[in-house]
Specification:
The protein is α+β, with helices and mostly antiparallel strands. Among the domains are: about 130 residues, Beta Barrel (OB fold (Dihydrolipoamide Acetyltransferase, E2P)), CATH 2.40.50; about 260 residues, Metallo-beta-lactamase, Chain A, CATH 3.60.15.10. The protein is about 45% helix and about 15% strand. Helix 12 runs antiparallel to helix 13. The two termini are about 45 Å apart.
C-alpha cells in the first residue's frame, strides 16, 4: 500500500491537479467546515463501538439511537452552537450514533436470514446457481451457491440466500465430482449447518470471514457412490447470471493449461484473477518469511498501477482530439476514466476487500481534486477511511485495513506530504521510494507483531527487489497473457527467478523472527514511536520514539509460577491438542487433525498459538497414530526443532523419519518447575498384543505441588482415545496400589465416545471439569448423549469445544475455566443450540 501511495502521489494526483493549469485552488473546505473532520472520525469510532457488541440489540434500540442522533446532527448543522470545538464534539457524537445505529440495523437485516437450527444435519433438496468461481482441490471442490428454492421432506423451507458448499469425492480427482462452472444451475441434495469455526486466542475468525462474504450456512453435497439420497445431483441449465465469474474461471483454467508448472501457474492466477487459494502453502510460507505476501494478490498496489496506466493512456488518446478536449479537459477525463477502468479491474479480480478499499480511496482522491477542494492530508486520510467503513463496516477488523491505512498515515505524518511529493525531481524518485519503504517497515513492525506474531528481517531488501519485479514485469506479463498465452510462460519464468531469490533470502539466519503478541496499547505506542523516529525532526526529539518502541520488543506474556501449571485445550474441531505450560517449560499433548493435503491444525491453529505465546516446546506427546491426533505434528515439529517426541506410534510411521520417537510406557516420569508429569498407560506388554491404536493411547497425569504451603496441589488427566477396556485396566492398576486416578481436570476419553467414560471410571476420576474436544455436528455424534448424562449425574461441569472454543484452566484459579467463545464473543459468532 505504501508503494501504491508513492505512485499515486507522483502520478494520479499530479495530473489531476493540472486539469486546470494555473488555476488557484479554492479555500480549504475543512477550514470553512471544521466539523467535517470530526464527522469522519465519528464514522470510525461509531463503527468500532458497534463491532464490540457481543450480541445484537432489537430494532427499536437502533431506531431510537438513529432518531436521537439525527436530531443532534440537525442541531449542529443549524449552527446554534457557535464555538467550533463544541460543534465538532457534538458533530462527532451525532455521527457516532448514526454510524452505530446504521451498522447495527445492517447486521440485523443480515442476521434475519440465518440458517434455521432445525434444518441442520437434514437432507435438503436445493435449487441454486453457482455464484462464484469454484475452488478445486485434491479432495473435490468448494463453491458458493445462490439459493433459489429448497425443500425438506417434500415441504418448502427457508434457507439463507447464499451458502458455501463442498463437493467431495472418495479419491483425489474423483470423476463423480463434476467440473463446476459459475452460472450453472444445479439441483442438489445437501446437508447444512450454521457457520461455525474454531475459536482460539489470536486465531483466524472464520465466522467473521463468512459474515463478510455474505455466507450464512456451510455444508456438503450428498451425492456420489454410497452417498446418494433424495434426488441426487443434476445440472438444470446454464444461467446468464454471473458472467464476470465465468470469464474469471475461463482465464484461470487457461493459465493452468498454458503453464505446466502448477506452482507458478497458481501465482499467476492469484495475480490475474485474485485466486489466492491457487498459491501452494509452501510458497505462502516463503512469501511471509520474506515479507512480500502482500504482492501475491490483487492488492492496492496493483489496482492503483492499473488506474495510473489506464489514465495515462486515456489522457494521451484524449489529447489527440481537439473536440473532446473542448468538451472535457483531458486530465479530468483521464482521472475518471482511469478510476472506472480500475473498478472494472477490481471486479474482474474478484472484488476482494483490498481492491474495494483501494477503489474507494481512489474515488475520494479523484472527487476531491476534481472539485478543487484542497484538504490537509489528515482529512483526506480520515475521509477515505470513513468511506471504506460506510461501504464495509466489518473491514475494520481485517489486518489489511490497518496495515494499509497505518502505512499511508505514517508516510503522510513523516513529512512526505503533497508539498514534497508534487515537486520531487526524477533523480530522487528511487531515494524517496527507499526512504518510504524503510519508514513503513519501521513503523509497521509493531503492528505486524500484533497481527501476525512475526517479523521478516529481510523484508526491506526483499520488497525493494520484489516490488518493481512483480509490479513492472510479472503482473504486466500476466495481464498480457489474456491476449496471447505465450506471455504467461514468460511470467512463469519471472516468477521462478524471483522465487529463487526469495528462497535464498528466506534461508538466511534470522530471516524471520517470531515474538509474542503484545497488548494492543503497546503496539499502538510502538507505531507512534516508529513514526516519531522517522519524522524530519532534530535527533533529540526523534530519539524520544525509542522509549515508545522498546516495551513492545521486550514484552513477554505471563507464565505460571513455580509449582503451578496452565492448560489450554485448543479448539481444533474433531481432534485433540492440549498445551501445558509451567514456569519454564511447555508440552503439547497431541497435534490436532489433518483436513487435507494443504491444511492441518498445526499450520492453522497450533503454530499461531505458539507464536502468540512465544512458546518453545520441550516435548510433543502424540497419544496414538490416528490422524485426528497427529495431523498437525509435521508442521509443529518443523517449526519446533528442539522438541522431543514421545508417542505410541509404530516404528514405520512417517514421523519416525522426521524425529526420533521415544515410546511412552507406564513408569515414565519427570519434574518441571515443581510440577510432576507421569505416563500411566500403556504398559510395555500392551505393545506386544494386537489391538486398535486407541488401546495404545498415552495417558498422561500432571500434578502440581502448590506454590505455597496453603495452596493445595491440582491434578490433570489427559487420556487420548482410551476406551472401556483401557479404563478398566487403569482402575485395576489403581486398586492394586497404583496411581490415584482422581483429577481436577479430565480430558474426556475418545472425545466423549459411547465406548468410553464408563460409570466406574467417571466416579474414580471425579473431576471438577471435564473437557471434550470434538467438532461441531461431527459425523461421529461426539459427545454421545449417554456419556453427557453420566457426567451430569456426577455433577461434573462438562465443557465441549463447540460451545466453549479454546478452554484455558490455571491451577492458581482451579474453580474457573476461561472459554474463548465467551470472553471474545461477538454478534456474528455462532451460538450452538
Amino acid at each position: 500500500m505504501f508503494t501504491s501511495l508513492f505512485i499515486h502521489r507522483y502520478s494520479l494526483w499530479q495530473w489531476l491537479q493540472r486539469w486546470r493549469p494555473g488555476a488557484s485552488l479554492p479555500s480549504d473546505v475543512t477550514q470553512r467546515h471544521p466539523v467535517l473532520s470530526w464527522g469522519f472520525g465519528g464514522v470510525v469510532l461509531g463503527t468500532a463501538l458497534q463491532l464490540q457488541q457481543s450480541a445484537l440489540d432489537g430494532w427499536l434500540f437502533y431506531a431510537v439511537i438513529l432518531v436521537v442522533s439525527a436530531i443532534l446532527a440537525s442541531f449542529v448543522a443549524s449552527k446554534v452552537v457557535a464555538f467550533s470545538v463544541w460543534r465538532g464534539f457534538l458533530a462527532c457524537l451525532a455521527v457516532v450514533g448514526l454510524t452505530f445505529a446504521l451498522c447495527g440495523l445492517r447486521a440485523l437485516v443480515f442476521a434475519s436470514h440465518a440458517m434455521p437450527p432445525e434444518l441442520e444435519g437434514r437432507d435438503i433438496q436445493v435449487l441454486g446457481t453457482v455464484s462464484a468461481m469454484p475452488q478445486r482441490n485434491a479432495g473435490g471442490a468448494r463453491f458458493r451457491l445462490q439459493v433459489e428454492s429448497a425443500t425438506a421432506d417434500g415441504q418448502f423451507v427457508s434457507l439463507p440466500p447464499s451458502i458455501y458448499l463442498g463437493w467431495y469425492g472418495e479419491t483425489a480427482n474423483d470423476p463423480l465430482v463434476p467440473e463446476l462452472v459459475a452460472g450453472q444451475v444445479w439441483q442438489l441434495t445437501v446437508r447444512l449447518k450454521a457457520p461455525h469455526g474454531n475459536a482460539n486466542p489470536g486465531g483466524f475468525d472464520y465466522e467473521l470471514w463468512l459474515w463478510e462474504q455474505g455466507l450464512q450456512a456451510t455444508g456438503y453435497v450428498r451425492s456420489g457412490k454410497g452417498k446418494a439420497t433424495g434426488q441426487g445431483a443434476q445440472m438444470q441449465q446454464m444461467s446468464w447470471r454471473y458472467p464476470v465469474e465465468r470469464v474469471r474461471q475461463q482465464v484461470r483454467d487457461s493459465v493452468y493449461a498454458s503453464v505446466s508448472e502448477r506452482r507458478t501457474a497458481g501465482v499467476i492466477a492469484a495475480l490475474l484473477v485474485g485466486d489466492q487459494a491457487a498459491i501452494e502453502r509452501a510458497d505462502w510460507d516463503i512469501f511471509r518469511a520474506t515479507g512480500v505476501a502482500h504482492l501475491m494478490s490483487i492488492s492496492g498496489l496493483h489496482v492503483t498501477l492499473f488506474a495510473w496506466a489506464a489514465a495515462w493512456l486515456l489522457r494521451f488518446g484524449w489529447r489527440q482530439s481537439t473536440r473532446l478536449c473542448m468538451l472535457f479537459p483531458a486530465p479530468l477525463a483521464a482521472a475518471w476514466g482511469g478510476l472506472g477502468l480500475a473498478v472494472a479491474y477490481a471486479v474482474f479480480s474478484g472484488w476482494g476487500v483490498p481492491a474495494q478499499r483501494t477503489v474507494l480511496m481512489l474515488f475520494v482522491a479523484v472527487a476531491l481534486r476534481t472539485s478543487g477542494a484542497h484538504w490537509p492530508w489528515r482529512h483526506v486520510w480520515l475521509a477515505a477511511m470513513a468511506v471504506v467503513l460506510l461501504w464495509d463496516p466489518w473491514a475494520l477488523l481485517s489486518a489489511g485495513f490497518w496495515l494499509s491505512f497505518v502505512a499511508v498515515g505514517v508516510l503522510f505524518a513523516t513529512d512526505l506530504e503533497a508539498k514534497n511529493a508534487y515537486g520531487v525531481s526524477r533523480n530522487k524518485h528511487f531515494r524517496a521510494m527507499f526512504r518510504e519503504q524503510a519508514v513503513v517497515t519501521l513503523a509497521l513492525t509493531p503492528l505486524g507483531l500484533l497481527l501476525f506474531g512475526q517479523v521478516s528481517l529481510v523484508g526491506l531488501l526483499a520488497n525493494l527487489l520484489a516490488i518493481p519485479w512483480v509490479t513492472l514485469v510479472v503482473t504486466p506479463l500476466s495481464m498480457a497473457g489474456v491476449a496471447w498465452g505465450g506471455f504467461w510462460q514468460a511470467a512463469a519464468w519471472g516468477i521462478s527467478a524471483m522465487g529463487a531469490v526469495l528462497n535464498w533470502l528466506a534461508a538466511w539466519p534470522m530471516a524471520m523472527i517470531a515474538m509474542p503478541t503484545p497488548p494492543i496499547w503497546l503496539a499502538v505506542a510502538a507505531v507512534l514511536g516508529g513514526a516519531l523516529l522517522a519524522k524530519r525532526l532534530p535527533w533529540a526529539w526523534r530519539l524520544l520514539g525509542l522509549p515508545l518502541m522498546l516495551p513492545v520488543l521486550l514484552w513477554q506474556p505471563g507464565r505460571p509460577v513455580d509449582g503451578q501449571v496452565e492448560l489450554i485445550a485448543a479448539d481444533v474441531g474433531q481432534g485433540t491438542a492440549v498445551l501445558v505450560r509451567t514456569a519454564h517449560h511447555s508440552l503439547l499433548y497431541d497435534a490436532g487433525p489433518r483436513w487435507g493435503p494443504e491444511t492441518d491444525a498445526g499450520h492453522r491453529v497450533l503454530l499461531p498459538l505458539l507464536r502468540r505465546l512465544d512458546e518453545k516446546l520441550d516435548t510433543l506427546v502424540l497419544s496414538h497414530r490416528d490422524t485426528d491426533h497427529t495431523g498437525g505434528a509435521m508442521a509443529v515439529l518443523g517449526m519446533q526443532p528442539q522438541a522431543t517426541l514421545l508417542s505410541s506410534i509404530e516404528a514405520d510411521h512417517a514421523l519416525q523419519a522426521l524425529r526420533p520417537v521415544q515410546r511412552c510406557e507406564v513408569g515414565q516420569r519427570w519434574h518441571w518447575d515443581g510440577v510432576l508429569f507421569e505416563v500411566i498407560h500403556p504398559q510395555a506388554a500392551d505393545y506386544a498384543t494386537p489391538a486398535k491404536s486407541n488401546a495404545l493411547s498415552c495417558v498422561l497425569r500432571i500434578s502440581t505441588s502448590g506454590s505455597t504451603a496453603h495452596t493445595q496441589g491440582q491434578k490433570i488427566l489427559l487420556t487420548g482415545d482410551i476406551e472401556a477396556a483401557q479404563e478398566a485396566q487403569l482402575l485395576a492398576h489403581e486398586q492394586g496400589g497404583g496411581a490415584d486416578l482422581h483429577a481436577d481436570v479430565l480430558l474426556v476419553p475418545h472425545h466423549g465416545s459411547r465406548t468410553s467414560s464408563t460409570d466406574a471410571f467417571v466416579q474414580a476420576v471425579s473431576p471438577r471439569f471435564a473437557l471434550v474436544q470434538a467438532g461441531y455436528r461431527n459425523r461421529f455424534g461426539h459427545p454421545a448423549p449417554a456419556v453427557l448424562e453420566r457426567y451430569q449425574m456426577q455433577g461434573i461441569d462438562l465443557l465441549d469445544s463447540s460451545h466453549c472454543g479454546a478452554a484455558t484452566w490455571r491451577s492458581t484459579e482451579p474453580m474457573r475455566v476461561h472459554c474463548q467463545r465467551v470472553v471474545a464473543r461477538r454478534y456474528w459468532h455462532h451460538v450452538p443450540p
